[in-house]
Amino acid sequence: MNSSTSLESTNQPDLILKLCSHFAKNKPVLSTNLCKIAFSVLSSPAAACNITSDEQYMVIQIKHILASQGRESAEQFELLYSNMCKTNVLQNRGSILNFLLKLARSAPQKDILWNTLESLDKFPSTTRHKSNLFLKRGNSQESIRSIFQGHTTIKSVQSSSTNIPSSRLTTATSSVWSSKNEFDTVTSKPSCKPPPTLSSFTDSLIQAELNLVSERDLLQDLIYSFQGIEGRFLRKEVGGVGFTIDPKTGKNLSPIQRGLVERLLGMSFLHNQLKQYCDTNDEQGGVICLALIATLRDELSAYYRTIALLQTALKKQVCLDQPQMTLHKALVYIHEHRVRFEWLAYIAEQCNEKKGGALITAVHGFLQHGSKCAQEVSEKVLTAVCKPLYIMLSRWLLDGEINDSCNEFFIEARDITAAERLWHDKYHVRKSMVPSFITMDQAKKILATGKSINFLRQICKDSGQMPEKDVLQKLSRTTSESLFSPEQSLEFDSALDKVYRETSLRVLDLLKNKYRLFEHLQSLRRYLLLGQGDFIRHLLELLVPELNKPAQDIYGHTLSAILESAIRVTNAQFEDEDTLRRLNVSFMGHSQGDTGWDVFSLVYIVDGPVGTIFQPTMTIYQCLFGALWKAKRMEFVLATMRKQQITMAKMFREIKELKPVMHVIHILTSEMIHFLHQTQYYFLFEVLECSWAEMLRRVNQAECLDDIISAHTVFLNSVQCGVLLDENSRLLFSQLRSIYNFILTLEGHQEALNEAATKEYEAYMELKAKMELPGSYGLTEEDEIAAKARAEDFHQFLNSIRTKVKHLAQTYEQFVKKYLMLLSSSSNMNLQLLSVRLSFNDYYKII
């Protein structure tokens, strides 16, 4: 149709009939149907409502469409529009612009229309033509309706080239168009259904021929499946959470429809998976898991709003220029939700059967993903799940309280009633619950801060404000994002350090000043580690008579009285009254044959807040006291023996036979004194003094109570290792104990010798006095026989004592050599040096 033809005829219905006949290529059936479509469109209320008088609005819309095609098209339109505004020929610029705008919007549908027509066998391919259509203002619906009613005599002629049966075509046509009365009803009453177009008409013909399912029905079923509801064509998978196409009702789906539906059903699977996770863990999970569920439900709510918009778009397709909803458009509608749901489902899968910090760690791993969507989704979820953790963390740092009924917090509170064990055993770090963005150093600081607050309030009964107000304000200004966000984590870390330092310094200040920490340390060193020499020596002298008794014959009140006597006559009397009140005697468990030396021990009672440091280590102090007490006793025994030897040498100068035995005992005693002096020096100076100085240095530099406990524990472990009480020195201590026993055996031999020599000396002096008695004639025969027998017995005793001492000396030397060999082979350099000092001139030849 050319432009001259359109201008000659001013009758709009005739123009429409000619245009439809041209499009149908003189096919009567198609021409009739196209006319019906055109008249229905022109007579519908939407045709009139789409014409707008806002000329500028249409210009802007046209420019927007042309701008997407290229800058040159938009510039050309502006030039043409300016020329059109200058001319006076055109009276209806707004209608013309509206027509051009509708042509531009319907341009993408033209290719679909012509491709559809060309694909039908009964319609030969046509050539597209441009035509100009001018409509007069006024009510054109009545004239079109009358023309349409006047042409009811047009017959439906079936083309000879068509493959569609007449009955099928009639049915398809009747399904789209109604009778004359129905048409009158449609034109007189607005309908919610969209006006039919040529594309929809041809689609109806194809669907009627192939018995295909309409996209509207499929979309409605898909909307149901998006919410987990079954429909006509879509059923739930057996044993699964997704949907599948019903094999019976869905058999008429075309391959394209089936492919699109299967792609859209992935959304149903993701929706059902997230909903199932929420329903399953709603009652079983803790507050952190509930935060995750709340976030998932927020996403589901936004998704449901989109589904509601999709449902509304499907039902309200009124205007002609409004595109109909299709499966492809549904894909676009839900694309954003699908991408987000894929990541949410993956996160939910990784969080399954996890809780607390482990769940947060699983979510935090997605924050490092390269996908921007994954980062956004994981950051939103991570922010939500960190809020309960942040609340628990703030309450622990500021109040020292844990409200964690589901065991999600990485600080675990145990049921401990003993005050001395509160710091050590009540609170611990659950390593499996520590989030990945919190380091172990930070976790330990968090643990120490809360423990310090609990220690201050429960043990020290300190109700002062802790930490200071500025620290509280700084911590309260932080948010849950500061836990994992690199930009804000520095602020949280700074606040954590501040709270940690404030609480720790408050605890240390109370322990050092109010509860006399250093005084207690000095008391333990003086009395349990034998640092108060004059007191220990005098106490030892007073206890000798009692401790030589069997253990079962010793009474505690007797030893307590001796202890008080030793305090009154030594420098211990100047100690603080509280310190002396804490010092007492104790008996360890004894067995048959034990003496008082085996069960006696001094104890120092420590209670209150400082008991947290000392109470768990009192057993170690008892072991150290036992080892040092034995060494001190050996020193006392050897000193007593040396004094006795000097006395015997002076007293028994007349007994010539005694000198060889005393010489052997003197040599062996000297060896033992040398050995014990070197051992004592090593214990008391190289071990105790050096370890004590190191402990004081660490205590003075301590930043928290844990540092003091650590320094004290290291000190005790060092002393234990030095006095050969650790696990690696058992054989050495066994050898040392055997050497101590040799000293006691030698003491027994010397005591026996001293007793026998004293009797012999007394008998000798008595015999001498009798011989020198005035008026006496000397000794009788009986006196000479008795003196001779006594001398023989004494000689035999001396020989036996000498033999025993020599045998003891040989055995002692063997044990000392073995002991030295163990020292020299030790990995401890200090023990190796001790071995050198014990045999500095190679007196003991070690092979």
Structure in words:
Helices cover 68% and strands 3% of the residues. The chain has 847 residues and is mostly helical. The chain has 4 domains: 3-192, no CATH class; 215-353, no CATH class; 389-514, no CATH class; 640-838. A hairpin with a 6-residue loop joins strand 1 and strand 2 (243-245). The longest helix has 44 residues, at 781-824. It is rod-shaped and about 190 Å long. The termini are far apart. It comes from Tenebrio molitor. Residues 219-514 form the Gamma tubulin complex component protein N-terminal domain.
How would you concisely characterize the structure shown here?
By secondary structure, this protein is mainly α.
Assign the structural class, choosing from mainly alpha, mainly beta, alpha/beta, alpha+beta, or little secondary structure.
mainly alpha
- Judging from the principal axes of the Cα atoms, what is the shape? rod-shaped
Q: From the structure provided, what is the oligomeric state, counting identical versus distinct chains?
A: single chain
The total beta strand count reads 6
The total of helices stands at 33
Q: Provide the helix percentage.
A: 55-70%
* Strand residues, percent: under 5%
Radius of gyration: 54 Å
* Average of pLDDT: 80
Strand order across the largest sheet:
1-2
As residue ranges, the low-confidence spans are 1-9, 45-53, 108-202, 204-210
Distance between the amino and carboxyl termini: 127 Å
Biggest sheet overview: 2 strands, antiparallel
Structural domains: how many: 4
